[in-house]
């Protein structure tokens, strides 16, 4: 892949954050789910298999466009 240098980092700010990879192509489906506990970091790339990443739970997400914070799960 041509974009090997482009990483995103996801740092969990609570236990049980889910990082979900979604497929590239005509259908967009979950293909991978990674659970991070507080303080754990995942460094990931967009690849020919992965077009989008969904983060569930409270995390700091750093991309080339800046940092965004996802919120904690709303417990009902
Ligand atoms: N096998 C997947 C791929 O090469 C692994 C992967 C890459 C991934 N980026 C991801 C999984 C982001 C979850 C989130 O596409």
TrEMBL record:
Could you state one GO biological process linked to this protein? DNA-templated transcription termination
Record bears the keyword Electron transport: no
Key words of the record: RNA-binding, Transcription, Transcription regulation
Entry GO MF terms: RNA binding
Q: Which Pfam families match?
A: TrpBP
Q: Which Gene3D superfamilies match?
A: TRAP-like
Domain Tryptophan RNA-binding attenuator protein stretches: 4-70
Bilayer-crossing residues are none
Q: How does it assemble?
A: Oligomer of 11 identical subunits arranged in doughnut-like structure.
NCBIfam families associated with the record: PRK13251.1
Return the similarity comment: Belongs to the MtrB family.
Q: What protein name applies here?
A: Transcription attenuation protein MtrB
Lineage, top ranks: Bacteria, Bacillati, Bacillota, Bacilli, Bacillales
């Amino acid at each position: 892949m041509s974009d090997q240098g482009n990483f995103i980092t996801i740092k969990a700010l609570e236990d049980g954050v889910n990082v979900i990879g979604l497929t590239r192509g005509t259908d967009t489906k979950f293909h991978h789910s990674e659970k991070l506990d507080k303080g754990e970091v995942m460094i990931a790339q967009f690849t020919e298999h992965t077009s989008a990443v969904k983060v569930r739970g409270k995390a700091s997400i750093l991309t080339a466009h800046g940092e965004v914070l996802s919120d904690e799960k709303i417990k009902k």
